Amino acid sequence: MTYEQLIDIRRALHRIPELGFQEYKTQAFLLDYLKSLPNERVEIKSWKTGIFVKINGINPAKTIGYRADIDGLPITEETGFEFQSEHIGQMHACGHDFHMTIALGILTHFARNPIDDDLLFIFQPAEEGPGGAEPMLQSTEMKQWKPDMITALHISPDLPVGSIATKPGLLFANTSELYVDLKGKGGHAAYPHTTQDMVVAACSLVTQLQSIVARNVDPLDSAVVTIGKIAGGTVQNIIAERARIEGTIRTLSVESMKKVKERIEALVHGVEIGYNCEAVIDYGAMYHQVFNEEQLTDEFIEFVNDDPHTKFILCKEAMTGEDFGYMLADIPGFMFWLGVESEYGLHHAKLQPNEEAIIKAVSLMCNYITFKANQG
Ligand SMILES: CC(=O)N[C@@H](CCC[C@H](N)C(=O)O)C(=O)O
Fold first, then answer.
1. Which residues bind Mn(2+) (predicted)?
2. Alpha carbon distance 56, 187 (integer Å)
3. Using an 8 Å Cβ cutoff, are 109 and 362 in contact?
4. What is the rounded CA–CA span in Å between residue 324 and residue 329?
5. Is pLDDT above 90 for 376?
6. Alpha-carbon distance 320 to 309, whole Å?
7. d(CA 31, CA 16)
8. Per DSSP, which regions of 184-332 are E strands?
């Protein structure tokens, strides 16, 4: 595929971001493109709003897997691009338009130039939530076509174009969403003594939650408790009967996740008593940590280091979450960052990843997959 074709695909996908398990237009776009490929060796199976694509090898000894996530985020885009999102309130602000385009670029190369091994491309819905990797892993399609190794990339706005970063072992954190619904007794703004104000209770809870990382987690360990949304009340002169906070928890170990949740539960219970209200906690979706298999990752690092067009950066683990962690817990493989240098970061309305990174990633991964297939 040419540079221009890749850019056209990325921009077309960028226009139509959709939230988890609602990726209907995205799936239709991908299927349309896939059907245009030489079909002697290509098998396609839709799974919910995702897709499995198998490219049958000439003399397969193994199956190499490659996963791309396909969902967008509930953010109103502010890039001002001519190809800006057509879906108000939704944006590819985590680079999944890049991820899909790169996967299509690699896949197209091997559909036209088959190699010995079988290849499995996975276009996975709902990475941002509630999680598509785990159910896809359990699907009959995956059981039938299960790869022997698997890889995936994520764009990194912090790194320069032409660079790749990863590390063996732990790369991304364990995650859990967090929702707390508070219910008290609302009433007239002028009679607070007859009510239990859930705006005040929610604000107090958010402040108290900050003490968990500061005072309950070992400073040499790491954790994140972020509240991304707080909502409550109706108008300025009614005391709120209900409030809701929404957040996410990140830890580097399963034990720390357990401890952080215990502290959250204790603080929420304290708010129930202190503010005379009812509280319900829901942990929503939880993601397994991303843990890179050592041998394959070391080999990939060596491969990248030998590539004169790519700079390798050994990175630290990040508090990002990725449900690709479920696939890596079952199939040997690794994940890595792709440098796309953007002034604005992931999950920002002005994220502007540099498109030059797309063709570089396609070329690197075509070479890597060929190298793996040549190992027999
Ligand atoms: C790569 C990335 O940004 N992933 C998301 C995964 C979100 C998981 C879940 N919805 C949560 O918020 O816990 C991330 O925010 O790290």
1. 94, 96, 128, 154, 347
2. 66
3. yes
4. 9
5. no
6. 27
7. 15
8. 187-188, 223-232, 238-239, 242-251, 278-282, 286-287, 290-292, 311-314
- The pTM for the full model equals 0.94
What b/e string do you get for 290-314 counting C-beta neighbours within 10 Å, with b at 16 or more?
A: bbbbeebbebbbebbeeeeebbbbe
Cα of 223 vs centre of ligand 1, distance in Å, is: 14
User: What is the DSSP pairing of strand 149-156 with strand 333-339?
Assistant: parallel
pLDDT digits (tens, 9 = 90+) for 204-242: 999 999 999 999 999 999 999 999 999 999 999 999 999
What are the pLDDT digits (tens) for 110-132? 999 999 999 999 999 999 999 99
| 97, 128, 177, 323: the active-site residue | 128
Cα–Cα distance, 81 to 15 (Å, whole number): 10
Q: Count CA atoms closer than 13 A to 119's CA, side-chain side.
A: 29
Q: Please say whether the beta carbons of 308 and 158 come within 8 A.
A: no
Cα–Cα distance between 129 and 104 in angstroms, integer?
23
- Name the strand (E) or helix (H) holding 268: helix 254-274
DSSP SS3 for 211: helix
- Span from the CA of 342 to the centroid of ligand 1 (angstroms): 19
With bands split at pLDDT 50, 70 and 90, how would you rate the model's confidence at 42? very high
Ligand 1 lined by 321 (C-beta under 6 Å):
yes
DSSP track, 151-182: EEEEEETTS-TTEEEE-SEEEE-EEEEEEEEE
Residue 69 beta carbon below 6 angstroms from any ligand 1 atom: no
**Residue 76, pLDDT score:** 98
- Tell me, using a 6 A CB cutoff, whether residue 289 lines ligand 1: no
Sequence-ordered alpha helix ranges (H) in 66-131: 96-112
Q: Which of 69, 71, 97, 134 is catalytic?
A: 69
Is residue 118 flagged as an active site residue? no
Give CB contacts under 8 A, 24+ apart, made by 105-109: 105/1, 105/6, 105/358, 105/359, 105/361, 105/362, 106/66, 106/362, 106/365, 106/366, 106/369, 107/34, 107/37, 107/53, 107/55, 107/66, 108/1, 108/37, 109/1, 109/362, 109/366
| Both structure tokens of 18 | 């959709």
